[in-house]
Amino acid sequence: MLTQQAVILCGGRGSRLRPLTDTLPKPLAPVAGKPFLFHLLSQLKRNGYTEVVLLTGYLGHLIAEEFGDGSTLGLSITYHHGPEEWETAFRLAQARPLLKEHFLLLYGDNYAMFQQERLEQKFVHFGRIGCLTVYPRKARANVAYTVEGDVTTYDGTRAAPGLNGVEIGYALFSREVFSHFTGENESFSKVLSRLGEARQLCAYSLAGEYHSASDLERLKITDAYLRPKKILLIDRDGTINRKMPEAQYVTTWDQFEFIPESVEGMRRLAESGWTFAVVSNQAGVARGMLTEAEVWDLDRRMVGALREEGIQVIKSYYCFHHWDDKCSCRKPEPGMLLQASRELMLALENTWYIGDDLRDCTAAWRAGCRSALVGHSENWQQLPPEERPQICCDTVSEFASILLSQ
User: Fold this and answer.
1) Which among 109, 155, 223, 237 is annotated as catalytic?
2) For residues 319 and 333, what is the distance between their CA atoms, to the nearest angstrom?
3) Distances in Å between the alpha carbon of 398 and those of 240, 279, 378?
4) Of 13, 120, 243, 373, which has the most beta carbons under 10 Å away?
């Protein structure tokens, strides 16, 4: 890792969260039974960060009382407190002596499906002062950036032409960023505007959604997103049922043969409260071997048969495109997993995808999801290190034993 230090701006009053923030700082707003800041700190720990600097302001003493030195989370937390009147750039500048050569900067009210290694790869590739995590959209955007990740404009007024993304924090900086500070009590967005003009920013484009605790409505959505869910994503052919020979597809129910160890493993997981969502490529439709309606009929029969075994499949996602279509949903692309995240409110970094193909592992990595490779576990070394599955095993039943023992 380039750095193990993260800095979180959490000094604002949070007026859009009133009356909640009349007595509580925004980072302590309750989300899924924990303070919002707890989820950010836990995420940083999972991504390998060990040191966190909290830049507190309004009711900052309550944040320090809640998290202390961070040892209960396996982190080392340092606090730098200042008046709530300090703007974000001035607050960051005052904490400069605490900061390492490189640091990750977060906002205390945004939560995204962060992938540290991809951000660092962009930062190193471009050699800029800062690399922003950007959510692609044109409405209320403040960043213009290329497909490769070159930031051409940052506009805090959101009025410049060509803006196509919004910066959400999770930004990696070198200490050289302070050469663009004025010493005035100003917002960090003005610093980013100057860095944009100097062409000293690059961008990592976020694959999935981001969520916020900035107002009461968004807080409610974020609460639903971060609540733990016992939903497993699972491939179909080769994982639930036996795969047909290469270049052939299951086209009739007579050809659909469940793998006994898979059903047994899914049943045991279901008995512990887990449900399933199927995610599967079905290029046989594009190749004219069966229709979409026939795929959905097979799905209906499969779901019904599994229900009789006590296994609940709550949703199925199929890509019907040909591999030459270059779609965003056909694995190894992450589109179906990201769709499942949106529709099922899944935090993918806490979600497993079970599959039998190396493309399943790659799709999971691109979506920010954990992966389990079953049936062909000896092939995992063919993948780049970052794409390799967290669990390799021979059967879904074996995966169930591992998961249920955790």
Assistant:
1) 237
2) 11
3) 14, 20, 15
4) 373
The structure's pTM equals 0.90
Transcribe 300-331 into DSSP letters: HHHHHHHHHTT--EEEEEEE---GGG--SSST
**Please, where in the chain does CATH 3.90.550.10 lie?**
5-226
Q: Work out the angle at residue 191's Cα, subtended by the Cα atoms of residues 190 and 192, and round it to the nearest 5 degrees.
A: 90
Q: Extract the tokens encoding 6.
A: 């993260």
Active site residue 357: no
Q: Cα-flanking dihedrals φ and ψ of residue 284, to 5°? A: -60, -25
Domain with CATH 3.40.50.1000 in the chain: 231-405
Tokens of 241: 């049922």
Taken in order 289, 294, 295, 299, the sign of the CA dihedral is negative
Confirm whether 297 is a catalytic residue. no
- The helix/strand/coil state of 69 is coil
pLDDT per residue as tens digits for the range 49-106: 999 999 999 999 999 999 999 999 999 999 999 999 999 999 999 999 999 999 999 9
Which one of 3.20.190.10, 3.30.465.10, 3.30.9.10, 3.40.50.1000 gives the CATH number of domain 231-405? 3.40.50.1000
Catalytic residue among 155, 223, 235, 360: 235
Cα(346)–Cα(169) distance, integer angstroms:
21
**Angle (deg, nearest 10), helices 216-226 and 36-46:** 40
Tell me how many degrees the CA angle 147-153-158 measures, rounded to the nearest 5: 110
